[in-house]
Amino acid sequence: MKTALITGVTGQDGSYLAELLLEKGYMVHGVKRRASSFNTQRIDHLYVDQHEKNVNFKLHYGDLTDSTNIIRIIQEVQPDEIYNLGAMSHVKVSFDSPEYVGNVDGLGTLRILEAVRILGLEKKTKIYQASTSELYGGMPENKNERGFYDENSPFYPRSPYGVAKIYGFWITKNYREAYGMFACNGILFNHESPRRGETFVTRKITMATAAIALGKQDCLYLGNLNALRDWGHAKDYVEAMWRILQQDSPEDYVIATGITTSVRDFVRYAFEEIGVELSFEGEQENEIAKVVKCNNPLYQLEIGSTVVRVDPRYYRPTEVDLLIGDPTKSKTKLGWEPQYDLEALVKEMVASDINLMRSSYNANWENNAKEKNEK
Ligand code: NDP
Ligand code: GDR
User: Fold this and answer.
1) Annotation: CATH topology of 201-226+262-320+341-374
2) CA dihedral 117, 43, 100, 317 (to 10 degrees)
3) Where in the numbering of this chain does the NAD(P)-binding domain appear (predicted)?
């Protein structure tokens, strides 16, 4: 039985990865932070009473800013594989807490690598580092000849988050070269799911779509609608993380779909899921989206009503305008193939948020809506 340690196990990716590794028969250890309220909602379904026999999922309190604690956990767990997913992962928030993000996302990676070295586990423990497409910064001149970012494209990070992650990238590569460690970077482009944090743009959109459909919200306020992202599904991406560590030699890989979509189009697709057609008018901070058609009788959206507005508060001091990844290496070398396309992703996220909101707001909303319709 292999043993894995996941930092960031309570996050979106950590929860899917823990599921995947448990299915594969691993003993899974996760690092969770102490919080004043419960922060394990994404993994509660995996938790087993620690008094039972054959417990295969165990949580440890820890923090990437605390070397002593990282060393102790790794010493206790003796992992075959470490997945370093823990991070302050919000790009906009990183402008508000730049020193903290440097400490967690940058130095936190060093702490994992050093702990493995201090404990003499260099030959036993493989390490996956959660690197990111934010390293590229969306610089148009740095795309490859086919118009994508790949493993050889130069980096130009555009946020304290990106700058911290570039340290994580290079220190991982350096420890691989300096000490012969099996340490790899997955350069993952954006990936989403119903478990995505609520302040990332896709989830913010699907939650608002559901709330607007159910009459619980009038308008969604967003920042830059022109931003283009290569969006995949987190479930597919954690499979790639695992595959990266199963190779004969340690290497870095881009994981992406190769398709880019604007925030505006993501909004359009989300509303289409509830049978609503939008038209976008105006420019920059004056842009709005109005309802032009509402094909679902359950959702009482008024034709002509404004459901999306721009709030420049959500603009970033420096923005990454466009990301599109070239997954050729991961497809050929890892045999990785995503199972979800954007349409399936949006469908799943909107449906999940409608279900969540139905149960949290009003179990009888459907009957009420029908009744309202009949009057
Ligand atoms: P989430 O924000 O959902 O999860 C981040 C995890 O890190 C949470 O479990 C969080 O704990 C934990 N964490 C935060 N700070 C610390 C700390 N100081 N010490 C220990 N753990 C900490 O991120 P995702 O799951 O989306 O992403 C996983 C990783 O992949 C991150 O490193 C992210 O930067 C990177 N990445 C993500 C991409 C994406 O599109 N999702 C793309 C490319 C890279 P808590 O629950 O307590 O907050
Ligand atoms: P990103 O994800 O910054 O790409 O980082 P996010 O969903 O936050 O933003 C994507 C794009 O949408 C624009 N945008 C908004 N973003 C947010 N959060 N809220 C808004 O209201 C809004 N309006 C427009 C942003 O300006 C941006 O251009 C994610 C994180 O998961 C990182 O940890 C990861 O490394 C990268 O993806 C790859």
Assistant:
1) UDP-galactose 4-epimerase; domain 1 (3.90.25)
2) 130
3) 5-349
